[in-house]
Design a protein that fits this description.
Antioxidant, Horf6, Chain A, domain 2; Glutaredoxin; binds benzoic acid; elongated
Amino acid sequence: MSLRLGDTAPDFTANTTDGQISFHEWLGDSWGLLFSHPADFTPVCTTELGMTALLKDDFAKRGVKIIAVSVDDLDSHRRWIPDIEEVNNVKFNFPIIADEGRKVAELYDMIHPNASEKATVRSVFIIGPDKKIKLTLTYPASTGRNFQEILRVVDSIQLTSNYSVATPADWKQGEDTIVSPSISTEDAIKKFPKGVKEVKPYLRYTPQPNVD
Ligand code: BEZ
């Protein structure tokens, strides 16, 4: 059965380009971005892993550790990394799981037989420090992911798990947020000193609470 939001991210041990890891132990108290790609030495994947390496510091600022996975073996991953570095002008900087036995792919339901019998699709899992799944995304092999969008979602998840707000369509850091529907406007005015703007009784905006 596929994993759902709020499920515990399955634990596993695996060989990676940075050595053997036990997933939950490797995550520690951090957030995690676990994402699969269909195959090494393929064009879209080469751009995706390069982009993620370029954004590693942006993920780290948010307390997110990055780990990739495909069903290729360690030797293949190691031979591919110099290409990722050359094409994207980046030093590769996070582990890739060698999942030739499909253990991780099966635990996280990353193989979608109607897309490919053999390869993982482009799955994304954001995992919280409580090891619960906070986000799942699935893209087809032919569509490279937008990692700025994944950072944006991390910002929203981290904000909304600490404050009684939600984020509107296309929200970005610093923009107004939406008061949680569970809070009355009267209580919201007390709770959010920066102000509350009522557009509809069920749609109330307040400036992002954790920025000046
Ligand atoms: C790619 O990464 O370029 C790719 C992989 C599998 C199918 C199509 C594209």
